[in-house]
From TrEMBL:
InterPro entries: RRP1. It is found in: Nucleus. Keywords: Nucleus, rRNA processing. This is Ribosomal RNA processing protein. Belongs to the RRP1 family. It comes from Rhizoctonia solani 123E.
Length: 329
């Protein structure tokens, strides 16, 4: 009888079958991944159908499931994420990212506590690879919108209306999102303005519409507060009455998201532009404006609206003060 590795014959006309990707033999899995990389990098290939994509990601999910040693897990998570960048077509690459998130949401409930951390690592790698994909295409606006729709649309990890989506995925995304964006920017040499407001939209959307108090709180503490604090370290706060001011004192550190803070572009800047809004105070105001605007939407939960307005008011007062009697209801 032939060995498992001898049975597998890579085919260029179709992605590797799931049974090879999820084989108990590491050599077979490794060959399947290499075959997949070759298949995906062929620009003559047609885009996969949703059904083909789901089958492929079923196999990839269990390919990663079978990896048991830490170094193997680290290497494989990077190898799988980097597949995003070998796909010549931007549309197909986004489709591959879509398949990843579909698989994560679909299979998450079956991940045991012994494997959960390695899947958190895989998510981190894919978030980073997605940012690198968007950077590769100079933050193409349609691509950014497509990624946002994957994240916040029906069945997406940041969808506020789908009760079947595990909250822990959205928490992890909030924890790592800006960190991985900053890492991707550090490795990029294009000096292309970062559309921060666009990238934050799924999180603002979730904050506005979630019915879960814990989810709302996690978005604030893990993402918005660290971001606004990082921007505040670069903002000169008015010195009047500083002795008696109740404003929070923050640890002033230029180490938090330095690449992001220095690369943010104006919200309406054309994709690929090198024109940057280098004034952190302006960036802060744009972030707060985005939060304020979404807070006013009809479908924003009342409790969340009040908190979002309070955040806007508090932070604006820290920057420039609010005229006496000027309140947001």
């Amino acid at each position: 009888m032939s060995s498992p590795s001898a049975v597998f014959v890579p085919k260029q006309e179709a992605p590797p079958l799931g049974k090879y990707l999820a084989s108990t033999e590491k050599k077979t899995r490794d060959k399947a991944i290499k075959s997949l990389a070759t298949f995906l990098s062929d620009d003559s290939q047609k885009s996969m159908t949703p059904s083909e994509r789901a089958k492929l990601w079923k196999g990839l999910f269990y390919c990663f499931w079978m990896s048991d040693k830490p170094f193997v897990q680290q290497d494989l998570s990077s190898e799988l994420a980097n597949l995003v960048l070998v796909i010549p077509s931007l549309e197909s690459a986004i489709g591959f990212v879509h398949g990843f998130w579909e698989a994560m949401v679909r299979e998450w409930a079956g991940i045991d506590r012994y494997r959960i951390n390695k899947y958190y690592m895989l998510i981190r790698r894919f978030v980073n690879a997605t940012f690198r994909l968007l950077l590769k295409h100079d933050w193409n606006s349609e691509a950014c919108d497509a990624i946002n729709e994957i994240l916040q649309g029906a069945g997406g990890p940041l969808c506020p209306d789908d009760k079947t989506v595990p909250a822990s995925i959205s928490y992890h995304l909030a924890d790592i999102y800006l960190e991985e964006l900053d890492k991707a920017l550090e490795a990029d040499d294009n000096n292309c303005g970062t559309p921060l407001i666009t990238l934050l939209k799924p999180f603002i959307h979730l904050s506005a519409r979630t019915s879960n108090k814990i989810t709302f709180g996690r978005m604030q503490t893990a993402l918005f507060t660290p971001l606004l604090d990082a921007l505040a370290t670069r903002v000169t706060i008015p010195s009047a009455d500083t002795t008696n001011s109740p404003r929070r004192k923050r640890k002033r550190s230029s180490e938090t998201y330095p690449n992001l803070v220095e690369s943010v572009c104006e919200p309406n800047t054309q994709a690929g532009s090198t024109s940057l809004a280098i004034n952190p105070q302006d960036v802060t105001k744009e972030v707060l404006k985005a939060i304020f605007d979404v807070a006013g939407h009809m479908d924003t939960k009342d409790a969340n609206r009040r908190k979002m307005y309070a955040l806007w008011k508090d932070r604006m007062e820290e920057i420039e003060g609010t005229p006496e009697g000027d309140e947001v209801n």
